[in-house]
Amino acid sequence: MASFAPEPEGVGGDRALYLAEADGLTLRVEGRTLRIDQPGRPPVYVPPDRLARAVFWGSVLVDAEAIGLLLDRNVPVSFVGRGGQTRGLAWGPGRGSGDLGALVDQRRRDPAWAEAYRTLLDAQVREARLDLARREDPKAFARWQAQGLRTADWEAWRRQLFPAQVPEAALDAAWRYLKSLLWHAVAGWSLDAGLDPHRGVLDARQTFGLVRELARPLAPWIDGTVAWGARAGLVRRGGVGDALTPAAVRRWTARFEGHQGWLAADVSARIDALASLARDWQPPTPRRARRQDG
Q: Mean of the per-residue pLDDT values for the chain?
């Protein structure tokens, strides 16, 4: 399958181009347009100006000029392995260097601010976990809401989401692929906000550091999506060992695209919270020592 979303006539400025491994599939430039060729099918033309991102899964023959054209148009490009792993992510020069990125760079030097951000992020992760529990297990949700949610309890409960008869390797492959799509989208939204996807607040040296942080609260969404797919039989038909098939990639991509609106709004709200924390930050005042009575 050459293109999952969109077809040429449906391309919009917020649409993605997905190319999956297929015999003879190639992407090259013709004029100032992307051309997708596959033996036995008519060529598909995609204007790069109307794309928000491009994802290549498996072994796809891509002309270097096509990659350059996408980057010139500020379209982030992601490369995903057959097992769902993010192999690389590239974007055009100059992106991710806006005013907000500079302010976050300045704030992260303040340990108190970084700790306030960590507290905010931990609260977002807890909220997302409770939201999944509310849908999947109302009793656990009520218990955790009243008593608190420990990580060990969450991990034990999370493992029970997935049917025992589904191979763990197949579940992991689906999980990794959805995470790759999510990372790619989060990187694009970070760039749009003037943030560097690599420069995390908690670790500015880690590759895709900010993406990892912004995506952490969305891990329960991936859990719920994979659990849904496993119950619906999609994982058994779509996974072979620790790799995905093109048919499985199509299904998971369609599921991801169906959640794009919600995911974009969720990440946008988290970026807004980060921006507010950076702009409105007031360093805590030192506590005055209590006067000791003689």
A: 85
For 93, list phi and psi in degrees, rounded to 5: -65, 145
Query: Over the chain, what HEC string results?
Result: CCCCCCCHHHCCCCEEEEEECCCCCEEEEECCEEEEECCCCCCEEECHHHEEEEEEECCCEECHHHHHHHHHCCCCEEEECCCCCEEEEECCCCCCCCHHHHHHHHHCCCHHHHHHHHHHHHHHHHHHHHHHHHHHCHHHHHHHHHHCCCHHHHHHHHHCCCCCCCCHHHHHHHHHHHHHHHHHHHHHHHHHCCCCCCCCCCCCCCCCHHHHHHHHHHHHHHHHHHHHHHHCCHHHHHEECCEECHHHHHHHHHHHHHCHHHHHHHHHHHHHHHHHHHHCCCCCCCCCCCCCCC
Over pLDDT 70: what percentage of the chain? 88
Sequence-distant (6+) residues with CB within 8 A of 155 are: none
At 65-77, the pLDDT tens digits run: 999 999 998 888 9
pLDDT at residue 1 greater than cutoff 90: no
Report residue 145 CA to chain centroid gap: 27
- pLDDT tens across 170-182, in order? 889 899 999 999 9
Pairing of strands 51-57, 15-20: parallel
pLDDT tens for 181-234 read 999 999 989 988 999 888 899 887 788 899 999 999 999 999 999 999 988 888
